[in-house]
Amino acid sequence: MNSSSCPLDRETLLKILDHSYDEIFVTDKNGVTIYVNPACQRNYGVVPEGLIGQTAGQMALERYCFPPITPIILQEKQRVTLEQETITGRRIVTTAEPVFSENGDLELIIMNVRDIYQINEVKHDIAQTLELVDKYKEEVELLRRKEFINHNLVARDKAMLDLLELVQRIAPVESNVLILGESGTGKGVIAKHIHKLSSRKDGPFITINCAAIPDQLLESELFGYASGTFTGADKKGKIGLIELATGGSLFLDEIAEIPLGLQAKILHVIQEYKYSPVGGRESKSVDCRIIAATNSDLNEAVKAGKFRADLYYRLNVIELEIPPLRKRLGDILPLIYFFLNKYDKKYKTAHQFTQDCLDVLLQHQWPGNIRELEHLVERLVITNPEGIIKLMDLPKSLRNDLHGVDTGLNIRDFSLAGALQEVEKNLVIDAYKQYKTTYKVAESLQVSQSTAWRLISKYVHELP
């Protein structure tokens, strides 16, 4: 077949690449990303524009996939196949192929990426690259000083990254921490992250939800009780959670729900590092760090006489406030794919979102925050046997978001192109109102600064 009967122009070639189910990732001779197709969203939770221009070092710093493969290719200049784990928790197999000029100079690196769970048999030779991987591990560890993503923590938005940078600074000290935030924002995840970064990381991390335990049992759960204290109780007595947390951290979730009488005993623990079990006569020493959390306004609770002011000030040595998901626009897409990968693994399925479905999810206000998003994604994975999650698969309440007061968008009044443009407009305007600069807007929306400038120029004149 000659070229005249089947022209393959640039537009046609891009259409082929963009519609490839497998991820295709291309860098130049210096390891700078020059092309990646939309399949990358499935693996990294980032749109292609967010990766274009990234260097190999930046990719390693952001830990998009580990261990990194580009440095190996730049060193070896031969084909390498490697099994990796992505930032959203997905296991992939990447084959990187160097492309050389007629003079033998490296021109491009073309990588084909496939989900390992969709491969019947994976054949790759990792033994030849182990030595190089070990070498680059040390370099990657240095780059990870600003790394804030692990198996349970996904953060891309600047507001959350700033918070996590503060967490890294305060985690090594022994000061008490008070975590504030709406229900479902991930206060427990942050508490555990603090513990893992602290000198107590090898000790226990004990959690108690103060709102889930009846008042009359909460004291014995925390402090334990001596033998013979209660009728029908264990004759040997019971060890409390404070003692179980020795050498580690004690996380008091929903601290505002602790009754006033018990608050005095908690205060004594913090001040004197001692306590007595219920019904006991001897004091025991306390050796645990206390991290507390609440979705209530403790200042108002103090004013209302429902929470002790002295306890509040003791707990609030370091205060961390987690922003709600609606103020973390840059985190929504990575979280969607993080949970999609998580539940696809759990239920041994494979799903994709259509673009119009993603647009609705990005526009949603998420009053239930990350917990709401996670439960929704799990529900969609379970209830959708086809593998393609479409707009009509979403709950009616979410679809109605498209024509709510906040967005001003009625899906029935738009073509698909018009609806997508309206979603784009709302995201850009919201980001500009919050951040005011093209750099921060670009970072929030995961696009290049030039793209952010173009979008702001297109829509900013419509701001009131």
From TrEMBL:
Domain of life: Bacteria
Residue ranges of every copy of the PAS domain listed in the record: 9-55
Database matches in InterPro entries: AAA+_ATPase, AAA_lid_NorR, HTH_TyrR, P-loop_NTPase, PAS, PAS-like_dom_sf, Sigma_54_int, Sigma_54_int_dom_ATP-bd_1
Start and end residues of each Sigma-54 factor interaction domain: 153-382
Coiled-coil segments on the chain, per record: 119-146
Family annotation (CDD domains): AAA, PAS
Upper classification of the organism: Bacteria, Bacillati, Bacillota, Clostridia, Eubacteriales
Protein name: HTH-type transcriptional regulatory protein TyrR
Keywords: Aromatic hydrocarbons catabolism, ATP-binding, Coiled coil, Nucleotide-binding, Transcription, Transcription regulation
Organism: Desulfosporosinus nitroreducens
Pfam families with a match to the protein in the record: AAA_lid_14, HTH_50, PAS_9, Sigma54_activat
PROSITE patterns the record matches: PAS, SIGMA54_INTERACT_1, SIGMA54_INTERACT_3, SIGMA54_INTERACT_4
ATP-binding as UniProt keyword: yes
